[in-house]
Write a structure and sequence with these properties.
21% strand, 5 helices, 2 domains, 8 strands
């Protein structure tokens, strides 16, 4: 009888230890996992596809005119994200490609598309083809002085080679490369829209 009690006591102690070890393992698992993921697996830093413009450049006072000759103030788009492109009015294939990409990028942001505006700076007095006007409704088409734009928009080559992004605070903040990858641009836009509480 005494032996049975002793065995039972030992068994109870072993079970108690197992429960204690199991409970400790459950509590320690999240700490160990976070340590391993940070120091061993090493999280990769997110990088932008577009080039951040630093310091950000505020929108200058540009002398802009709509196609029907009315003055246009870019500050009227304050509170919105603004995609910009610049080209001559003849709008060849590279120009039309950028207008198409801006339209599609805005569309694929889904419910956030109302937070984005598109502006095409026309850098000369050439007439814009009716087919271009009809193909890109909603794109704000304004004539701008090429020299004034060149002084504001950074470019390693020509400003016509790039897409630009203005934030809701009216700062030029990102430049996309020539012939950009739309999926990478979308990733940047999605990240900015998710992180921004305005616009």
């Amino acid at each position: 009888m005494a032996e049975t009690v002793a065995v039972s006591e030992v068994t109870r102690k072993r079970q108690g230890r197992r429960v204690l070890v199991f409970f400790f393992a459950i509590c320690a698992a999240p700490i160990i996992a976070s340590y391993l993921s940070y120091y061993v697996i090493k999280p990769s830093a997110r990088t932008n596809y577009g080039t951040l413009i630093e310091p950000q450049r505020p929108v200058p006072l540009l002398q802009l005119q709509t196609l029907d000759g009315k003055p246009f103030d870019l500050s009227s788009l304050s509170g919105k994200w603004v995609m910009l492109s610049a080209d001559g009015g003849k709008c060849g294939v590279p120009c039309a490609t950028k207008l198409y990409e801006m339209r599609q990028l805005r569309l694929i942001t889904g419910k956030d598309q109302e937070r984005i505006e598109r502006v095409w700076f026309i850098t000369d007095n050439a007439p814009v083809d009716q087919a271009v006007l009809l193909a890109y409704p909603g794109t704000l088409m304004v004539r701008a002085d090429a020299a004034a734009l060149a002084a504001w928009l950074p470019a390693q080559d020509a400003i016509a080679d790039h897409l630009y992004l203005v934030d809701p605070h009216q700062h030029l903040m990102m430049q996309f490369p020539r012939d950009p990858d739309p999926y990478q641009v979308k990733r940047d836009l999605t990240h900015l829209l998710a992180a921004s509480e305005i616009g």
